[in-house]
Amino acid sequence: MRRLEFGWYLPTNGDMTAFNKPEAARAPNSALFLDIIHAAEESGFEYMLIPVTPECWEAYVTAAYLVGQTRTIKPLIAARPGYMNPVLLAKMIATFDQLTEGRIAVNLIAGQNEGELRGDGVHLAKEDRYALMDEEVGILKALWTADGPLDHRGRFHTLEGAKIQPAIFQKPHPPFYLGGGSAEAWEISAKHSDVHLFWGDRPARIEENIARIRQLAAAHGRADDIGFGMRLQIICREDGDEAWAAARELVSTGTDATRARLKDITWNSAANRRVQELAETHGEMIGPNLWTGITKVRSGAGIAIVGDPQQCAAQLQAFIDAGCHSFCLSGYLHDDEARRFKALVRPLLAAHNPARMAA
Question: Which of 3.20.20.300, 3.20.20.30, 3.40.50.410, 3.90.1310.10 is the CATH number of 5-352?
Fold first, then answer.
């Protein structure tokens, strides 16, 4: 059985206790980022997801700044097809990996918003972005494991005698994570990922999806190599009513119109469509403490675990029992919620899974 691991999220576009309320917002700056990453590290989180959407700060520069002021937490940073020459990216990641002695992980993202991609100058269709991702991840892995210069001739890249310095620190390479719900995403995960992250869904559905992706991985001889996790929000308070009050305030500006706009801009993302489908089919609740409310105000990870410590731990345990070992979590405010997780939820999970995690 895999050891349980927990990651947190760094909102480099700013933090808030309520969406779209200026008086409830904390502006993005170095002090905010340090508050959050220190809270996460002190709370036992092992990796930190750093976002790459246009409203967020540049992820690699931000990570380089923060990693020098922390001790153990590992940035999880995106590799996006079409954004950077893969030889340069391989060198950047290897340099980061060596300088930090293994404190980097790679998040594979094909993009969920076609308008944002066009704004960034990426005009490839979704299926072509995944094909490019497959080729570029293959190049990264080959450069990190090659004994000498690399020649490569593919659909998108031709390399003659490519080589990088320094060598990678983590052997054979840093871990790859991927979150996605499409057939293309599942196939890339099956072939390349160390962890496939699902966005919120019912545990029974997650268990079914794990079996399907593991079967795809078996075709690449990787059935035992791939692990699975959840990307979720969490809103935990000692009193469950207080948790729900915080949840309601967080999305108090959300309307059906804002949800419809989010659906329109993420129409080509299978994971986003699934989250919105759950909200439309089941309403606010898809499980005892699984809430869809954040889908009114945010694309991406819009499913939240809401409740008191016992309820939140029980819902996370249901995903553990379904086959997940990695949990990439976030909550508002992000420094406060990280500390609440350490104090209120982590001890309950550790008591239930003593061989798989420390308290």
Answer: 3.20.20.30
